[in-house]
Write a structure and sequence with these properties.
This protein is an all-alpha fold. It folds into 2 domains: 291 residues, Formate dehydrogenase/DMSO reductase fold, CATH 1.20.1630; 129 residues, Cytochrome Bc1 Complex, Chain D, domain 2, CATH 1.10.760. The protein is built from 19 helices and 2 strands. It binds heme C. Heme C binds next to α15, α16 and α17.
């Protein structure tokens, strides 16, 4: 069997790796989705302008266009930042995604290049072009930006629901997986809504009388109508994801359930305002209210992305690769040979640890826990376990996948468990200058027993 690959290590201090990725990811998703919805809205308003609707042309050539430009540029930059950070944190996951979807990824990139070119061409030359060319260019921009969502969405959805691909059904089965359509349609509805909300903010800044603004707002708010389908799409998504993930989202894990509630609550408020207030009752919305709704939408996006990422735990690719960049098959092997026996990277501050056992414990933490925990910052291991007895700690670490189902099985041997336990105790004690070694044969035998009892399979199956 090939040896487990070890990639260079990155540390983010009190922030855990997931938070770093999440932070960049949320900004990226928000901007990129707005860039898509904004593009569709620009095309719609251009059609209106060409049919003689007053002020529509001024809207298309005004601030809104600049916002779309800024967001696809910043969206592109944060997109690159995303891949850059995910490669630092999960090189093996990204490697697997590129191996599996190489040409689809290239296809996504081509659409993205078209989007950028069409968008910039419209921004730069739009006012000088004839009607037909303007329409075509905007259609190309909106179509290409949606296509880049189409392609990347399949790859991201595959991470959560690889389905038949796991049985060797091939690339297309992986791409058009169970959560492909619900998440594509959901994101499309979100994109259109964001376009509509930003448009309402921008229309309020235009130099028009109230009637003129109201007329444009009525048109723009139609774009948020797909929000009405969002509960259905969200339900569809919930239905196709693995049963254990669904249970966490629906009460099994309170932090995740709360995020689901925040996302659903904020979306319902926005949806109710837009559909009942703006579309049915034809109310007027001022700039402040539109901005407030937009901030709510940002909150909903953030909560939604957190849930989507969280639902995949303990995997980065369901059934194939754990968040620790270890495959399920490799766990059994690491139980034999030790978690860090072949880890080639030294600790950055090795002289800090008074004994070899603590050095080993720190390395085990880095290899097996650091992807989702920190010691003292976010999801802090020292704090989560501070009140536990030593025995309780040993048991819970040895039976990690049963302690919480969103953790992978412990991928090391009994001496690794004990080294990690000592390391956590030493950190909790304030890192004193000396620390006794703990190698009582009885302790190790007990841990061994627990490791054997719990086995190396995860609690949730591959689906
Ligand atoms: C895939 C991500 C992931 C990995 C890897 C992971 N954990 Fe966790 N762990 C979590 C999450 C999420 C929680 C839940 C935190 C909460 O409920 O507040 C958690 C909770 C815990 C808890 C508290 C359990 C409780 O009942 O309160 C302990 C202890 C723990 N983890 C130890 C570890 C150790 C030790 C490792 C490494 C050997 C590890 N975890 C690896 C995600 C992970």
């Amino acid at each position: 069997m090939e040896s487990v690959p070890y990639y260079p290590v990155n540390e983010f201090g009190p922030l855990m790796k997931g938070l770093v990725i999440g932070g960049v990811g949320i900004v990226h998703v928000f901007l990129a989705q707005f860039a898509i919805g904004g593009g569709m809205l620009l095309y719609y308003f251009e059609r209106l302008a060409q049919r003689g609707v007053p002020n529509a042309r001024a809207f298309v050539d005004g601030y809104f266009k600049i916002l779309v430009l800024v967001s696809f540029v910043v969206g592109a930059l944060t997109g690159v930042a995303m891949w850059f950070t995910t490669i630092q944190v999960g090189a093996r996951t990204i490697g697997l995604m590129i191996d599996e979807f190489h040409w689809l990824w290239a296809t996504e990139w081509v659409w993205f290049a078209i989007e950028i070119t069409a968008g910039y061409a419209f921004y730069r030359f739009g006012p000088r072009l004839d009607d037909t060319t303007r329409r075509r260019l905007l259609l190309l921009y909106a179509g290409a930006s949606w296509m880049s969502l189409f392609w990347i969405n399949g790859i991201l959805a595959w991470q959560l629901t690889p389905g038949a691909w796991l049985d060797g059904a091939g690339m297309w089965a992986g791409f058009f997986n169970a959560s492909f359509w619900p998440s594509l349609l959901f994101r499309t509805a979100v994109a259109a809504t964001l376009g509509a909300l930003v448009a309402c903010v921008v229309i309020n800044t235009m130099d028009l009388d109230r009637e003129g603004k109201a007329a444009l707002i009525r048109r723009a708010s139609r774009f948020a109508a797909p929000m009405a389908a969002m509960p259905l799409l969200a339900g569809w998504f919930m239905y196709v994801i693995p049963a254990d993930s669904r249970q966490w989202l629906m009460g099994g894990s309170m932090p995740m359930t709360m995020f689901v509630a925040v996302a659903a609550g904020a979306s319902t408020l926005i949806g109710a305002y837009v559909v009942i207030g703006l579309i049915v009752k034809k109310l007027y919305i001022n700039g402040a209210t539109a901005t407030l709704l937009l901030v709510l939408a940002f909150g909903a996006t953030a909560a939604g992305e957190f849930v989507r990422e969280g639902a995949r735990k303990p995997y980065t690719v369901r059934g194939v690769l754990y968040s620790t960049s270890i495959t399920p098959a490799e766990v059994a092997r690491l139980r034999e040979e030790g978690a860090v026996t072949r880890d080639p990277y030294p600790l950055r501050d090795e002289s800090r640890y008074p004994t070899p056992q603590l050095v080993r414990g720190a390395k085990v933490h880095r290899a097996l826990c650091d992807a989702c925990h920190t010691l003292h910052g976010a999801n802090a291991l020292v704090e989560l376990t501070r009140t536990w007895t030593d025995e309780q700690l040993r048991l819970n670490v040895a039976k990690l996948q049963r302690t919480k189902a969103f953790m992978p099985p412990f991928a090391g041997n009994a001496a690794d468990v004990e080294a990690l336990v000592q390391f956590l105790r030493w950190e909790a004690a304030g890192a004193p200058a000396s620390w006794p070694a703990s190698d009582a044969p009885g302790t190790l035998a007990q841990i061994e027993d627990w490791l054997d009892q719990v086995g190396t399979s995860p609690v949730g199956g591959p689906r």
